[in-house]
């Protein structure tokens, strides 16, 4: 089994558990150049808030988009947008990625700015 299939297997297991709990989730995706975060409602059909390193207002303040500092800025932005949408509690769907580096930085920044998970 290669790395991508292993990650997708872990992600499927986590998503099925979150779906069973019927809670809003903070879903992330990570590529070598960018990081994306979305707040998805409990039914899984609507994106309530999102942020990524591709957003024009965030990208202007970033020197590079594929590092821990950029992930922290995205975490802060998604937390602020989620609170504006009325969401305070979420489940963290890390997409099968290890809780380390950019994923950890995004999660910590989101927690610091008001999201609870």
The averaged pLDDT comes out at 96
Q: How does CATH name the architecture? A: 2-Layer Sandwich
Which percent band covers the strand fraction?
15-25%
Give the SSE string.
HEEEHHEH
**Major sheet description:** 4 strands, mixed
CATH class: Alpha Beta
Helix content: 40-55%
Instruction: Give the CATH topology.
Output: Nucleotidyltransferase, domain 5
Tell me the overall shape: globular
Write a structural description.
With 117 residues, the protein is of the alpha+beta class. It has a single domain (3-112), classed as Nucleotidyltransferase, domain 5 (2-Layer Sandwich). 44% of the residues lie in helices and 18% in strands. The protein contains 4 helices and 4 strands. The chain has helices at 3-21, 56-59, 68-84, 102-112; strands at 25-30, 35-40, 47-52, 91-93. The chain has a 4-stranded mixed β-sheet with strand order 3-2-1-4. Helix 3 runs parallel beside helix 4 (102-112). The radius of gyration is 14 Å and the shape is globular. The chain starts with a helix and ends in a 5-residue tail after the last helix. 30% of the residues are buried.
SSE order and pairing:
Blueprint: H1 3-21, E1 25-30, E2 35-40, E3 47-52, H2 56-59, H3 68-84, E4 91-93, H4 102-112
Helix pairs in contact: 3-4
Short recap of the structure:
This protein has helices at residues 3-21, 56-59, 68-84, 102-112; strands spanning 25-30, 35-40, 47-52, 91-93. It is α+β, with helices and mostly antiparallel strands and 117 residues long. The protein is globular and about 40 Å long.
Short key terms for the protein model shown above:
117 residues, Nucleotidyltransferase, domain 5, four-stranded mixed beta sheet, 44% helix
């Amino acid at each position: 089994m290669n790395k991508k299939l292993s990650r997708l297997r872990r992600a499927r297991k986590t998503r099925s558990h979150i779906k069973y709990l019927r809670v809003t989730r903070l879903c992330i995706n990570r590529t070598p150049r960018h990081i994306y975060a979305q707040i998805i409602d409990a039914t899984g059909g609507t994106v309530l808030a999102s942020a990524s390193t591709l957003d024009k207002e965030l990208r202007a303040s970033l020197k590079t988009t594929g590092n821990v500092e950029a992930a922290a800025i995205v975490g802060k932005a998604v937390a602020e947008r989620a609170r504006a949408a009325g969401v305070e509690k979420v489940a963290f769907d890390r997409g099968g990625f290890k809780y380390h580096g950019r994923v950890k930085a995004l999660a910590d920044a989101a927690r610091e700015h008001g999201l609870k998970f």
